[in-house]
Give the backbone structure.
Amino acid sequence: MQTRPLYPPFTVGVDLGGTNTVYAIVDKTGYIIDKASFPTDTPSVDVWADILADGISGMIDRHSLQGDIVGIGIGAPSANAMTGSIEGSTNLPWPPPVPLANLMEARLGLPVKINNDANAAALGEKAYGVAAGMNDFIVLTLGTGVGGGIVCNGHLLSGARGFAGELGHVRFPFAADRVCGCGRKGCLETVASARGIVETARRIMAESNKETILRDMSSDELTSKTIAEAALSGDAVAKEVYDFTGECLGKAAAEFAAFTDPEAIILFGGVAKAGDLLVNPMREAFGKATLHLYRDRVRFMVSSLEGANAALIGAASLPLL
Amino acid sequence: MQTRPLYPPFTVGVDLGGTNTVYAIVDKTGYIIDKASFPTDTPSVDVWADILADGISGMIDRHSLQGDIVGIGIGAPSANAMTGSIEGSTNLPWPPPVPLANLMEARLGLPVKINNDANAAALGEKAYGVAAGMNDFIVLTLGTGVGGGIVCNGHLLSGARGFAGELGHVRFPFAADRVCGCGRKGCLETVASARGIVETARRIMAESNKETILRDMSSDELTSKTIAEAALSGDAVAKEVYDFTGECLGKAAAEFAAFTDPEAIILFGGVAKAGDLLVNPMREAFGKATLHLYRDRVRFMVSSLEGANAALIGAASLPLL
């Protein structure tokens, strides 16, 4: 069956999402050897942990990899690497704190590392993706929310309590009139998340009579993805939405550069699939806005990790560090 | 003569300023064993390096510390730790780049580390000051300019090319109408530097007829120091100047926290001597502005390094890391 050579060390990656929990055995190159999933909404976190542990054990057995797995990595919302627990409000069915690392270590007898989605993405890019060999970069995860994972001097920044890199909640004048889920105004997330992009489209449509295919879409149909598709097929308003979003990201990146002098800023997650629609205006705005020290020195990239599996592969990289 | 016990390792610290070069032998506790200085403005950088090397050698001999010095640390404007050179424009008499580390290593046969003033300050606070034992903190140097030194996960952040921590050039709405020396508008430095504080005083005086002792001061007399003295002696306008400055610093710190989740933010440099005049409004503004994750979690402190020698002691800490 297996035609591709496999490269140890092997790890297990777990992507704990609000709807589904996906897990996989991954090799050193980020290749997914086997993958499975189950619904996250279980009667209790113990039941969830039992299902996951049984699934992982069975998968390891099937591939005769007993003794060859160096660790388990779990990417989860609000996961704190320092405590091994999920802390703070999430859209998971269990109340925080959830002692995720302890639960899984007890069941599997393997070291378990957890981290939030953005930090797992940053480490995944370093282990398997476009940041291979880089010691200084920032990953911005653009999805339902906006997160940040910062690697500087070769280290993932965690901070005093594990809350470093909350770049979706840095505030900017371009978002001053947008209310964030955190209760404040002006957060980058209000513009650069999937929801922020839809909001931008609504605003542009409300402020003008410009013709656009977006006006024909129902509330359910209007998403960051359909807007990107419209932009790619030549819709001027949809293009304007992504130009604005990219410009905002470039202005944000211009300030972020002053913190850690990154070699690259990498876009990750569903919204990042827009690719050049975002990256081109982002690069241009960055050049205009940033301090001379960083101008023309920062590369803008999009994650190379396979779309649907990117978070999973990121999680699988956690035990490698 | 020497009544205080001395604790090895010993280092030499050099504070290279535009006017004077100060050097000293410092012990592990940050105690200055001996200190001397000479004017920086020499015919060439080689002459400067000769004078400094002779001075340091003589000082080591006088204290019979031959073989006991572990290294030389030099704090200098625009010093790049990664290259060992001064890069970019400075107010020094020699054109950049200046290969400072090489020049001194060749003359003294000791390892030489250089860093910019703000990074030296951060390491000095960790080695000898209020950040002893801390792994996550930010030092803001408030003087002629504003700089930043960031320690996260126990490491001083340098970034891809040594330009991490340029926090004086992060831009904020509260400074949107102020032009910075870097050619952009809105940099924190335009408000929180010594010059920024004088500018704030001028603006408040121009916008109102409020009585204040500051109006009686000549252009030369009106400095961040005399404004602080006026505030402490009850002058309402001078107090307003520092309230505004502290509020701006608090708003800036509120965003900075999202990058590295610091345990403390430490004010350093001439302007920081205003102490509670700055720290109290800063703490209050931070609490109002920051994300809930950081609220009530960050300590605001003023450098404990002896005022006139703080930069020198910071430089002396460089070889210890």
Observations:
- Chain B has a mean pLDDT of 94.
- Residues 236-260 of chain B form the longest helix (25 residues).
